[in-house]
Input
Amino acid sequence: MLDIKFHGHASVQLTTEGHSIMIDPFISGNPLAATRLEDISVQYILLTHGHMDHILDAVELAKANDATIIATHELATYLGWKGAKTFALNLGGATTLPFGKVKMTQAFHSSAVVLDDEQQIVYMGMPGGFIIEIGGKTVYHAGDTGLFGDMKLIGDSHDIDLAFLPIGDVFTMGPEDAVKAAEWVKADFVVPIHYDTFPPIKQDGDAFVAELAEKDIRGKALKPGESLRLP
Output
């Protein structure tokens, strides 16, 4: 049994049998967020890349829960300097954790922390996604990415029960490419992410799910704060 809660943007919480993990926590800065950060309890925090709309609340959430942040070496080091417990992972690498297994996949995007006051951009390693084995299920969180051919390899190499795919366009792939990605990763169920939060990435999640249905792919556009359960 796996419980999934969508916190908006790319923030997803996976919970099973006393274990809970959060991917890309962006709550306090999300105008559409329906959950308070202090109400979230997790043991692990997975970060796909270093942009603020994916890491903004990571350190605060980690400290409040004594949770471990899992991210690329550069990002893990940076957040470790800020007092968080971290574990460094990199593309293609995997680690076994109390709830199951996490493997980091590639993504085609960028990854940096922008320090506006100093007018500096700090490189945070390569962007990625995650294959997560938890609660007897396999979950793919693509992170921020464009469409890339090795999504076929991901689908061939893993029996994916649930995939989170960005559809916002502009900064990631849009709905048309995300439908193709859904075909390639061959997930049993698809949830769109990284859309609607800001004007440039406004999309119709339900229309995307309808396009999936035309390809005989099941999916649902979750609203921030909405949950679903995989038996």
Q: What stands out?
A: The radius of gyration is 16 Å. Helices lie at 52-55, 58-65, 73-81, 151-157, 175-185, 205-214. Residues 175-185 form the longest helix (11 residues).
